[in-house]
Amino acid sequence: MSDSALTAYCNHRERLQKLRDELRGAENYVEFSLRWASTLEHIKLATSALVRLGMDAGGKATAAAERYKNLQRTDPVLTYLKSARDAQAHEDERGFAQVSKENDPYFSIGGGAIRISPGANIQMTGNIINGLPFIGEFSSDPKNPWVRWDPRGAHAAFEPRAFTLETVLGRNGKKKIAPPERNGAVLSPLDCLDYATSSLGQFHVELLNAIQPCGPLQQATGHR
Q: How far apart are CA 44 and CA 38, in angstroms?
């Protein structure tokens, strides 16, 4: 069982690495949402494989598996990803909302967002580098082309079209779980994927350290 669980984990980890590139290259929401659903499923399967490996091994490895199972209930990112996967899987059955969405590009000026229609002709003057003071005016609506702002230091930042995460319902279908944040900023899908794969990698190493190396397992991991 240990060998098959380890092989399964390695396969799912490899697929997650490929999905990262596919998510980054998604050109429309349909592509992104299908790949994100697959990502959530492979995170679940990779986690299950490692937990099974730890439970089968016994001793310190089982204790490590129990700690990781508990981490999924306490870590904001892992909790969100698990809930998002459950919401996606039972969307039709329970009426859950989609777990991801597509955002139109927009300018954020002085903390307020102004949406930009796809293909709009944007004209700006002054300093439009992200995070630096905006001075001038810009056009986003053909019917009302110019929007003027206080030129004394309103910050301007451009956010391109992006795929983001939705709030999902928890396992009981009542508690809402918002997309995780770091330093006040909502994490992107790729941030969450990177966090999950890093967390799984650490769990993998912890299991290997807890299991006495034996022939097939040692060969499968490449550790000596």
A: 10
Encoding tokens for residue 169?
């319902």
- 170-190 pLDDT, tens digit per residue, is 776 678 899 999 888 889 999
Query: Which tokens go with 187?
Result: 């994490």
Q: Which of 16-25, 80-89, 107-116, 181-190 comes out lowest in average pLDDT? A: 107-116
Domain boundary assignment for the chain:
2-100+164-221, 105-160
Which residue from 111, 86, 77 is spatially nearest to 187, judged by alpha carbons?
A: 77
pTM of the full predicted structure? 0.74
Q: Note whether 32 and 23 are within 8 A (CB).
A: yes
Question: How far is Cα 213 from Cα 13, in angstroms, rounded to an integer?
Answer: 21
In degrees and rounded to multiples of 5, residue 22 shows phi and psi of -70, -40
Structure tokens at 69: 């199972």
CA distance 218 to 222: 6
What are the tens digits of pLDDT across the range 15-33? 999 999 999 999 888 899 9
